[in-house]
Model the fold of this input.
Amino acid sequence: MAATCTHIAIHDLDRTLTDTGSWVHFLAHWLRHAAPWRIIFLPLVALGGLAHGAGLMSRGQIKAWSHRWLIGRRVAADRMAAHAEAFATRFVAAHALAPARAALAADAAAGRRLLIASASHGFYVRAIAARLGVADVVATEAVRDGTWLLSRLEGDNCYGPAKRQAVERWLAANGLADAVLHFTSDHHSDLPCFELALASGGSVRCANPSAELAAIAAARGWPVVQWGRIRTSLLERA
Done:
């Protein structure tokens, strides 16, 4: 008897399953509930944003920069976990898209293993994923030093080709290199993951697509769905 293939439904998080990006919301949560005095460093973060816009800082560098000044160089991991849980509860209630949640449920009912692959920080993406019924996460990771969570990134920012590489590492680590993948995202930066899914014999879906992704979908005949009104942000474009 032939072995049954494992099917995995991979979803991006920000603006795919939610109506907005999550990083700025998490920073706002931290400033409000954990360290209000750090608001004095907002001008430094703004300077970093200008440097990123000028091409002087990468996405990963600006993420670590804003973390350094608005959260801190290091935070006790258990303290961060508690704030991540509180944040996730509020964020999912306010920003998770109902059709996206229905799509996750449909994938699970079809027997597909669920995975969220996000460029956002794993320390809170896992808490969000749990509230969406998803156990597996690939995300940007912060360096851990014993019981401390540092502002530096562990490896690459999980974005673009780096997200595909992170997904491939996760598949290999879980003995799923031959799985059939079904990938959903809103953004053209995820083209490497779309192509990975198609190469596996799986499917793709463009949810709430950016203008660039909508054009790619039209040219390639990829399905498009609109799960809700997406809120734009000057600080988070993908």
User: Anything to note?
Assistant: The CA atoms of residues 90 and 121 lie 17 Å apart. The chain has one domain: 7-225. The first helix runs from residue 23 to 33.
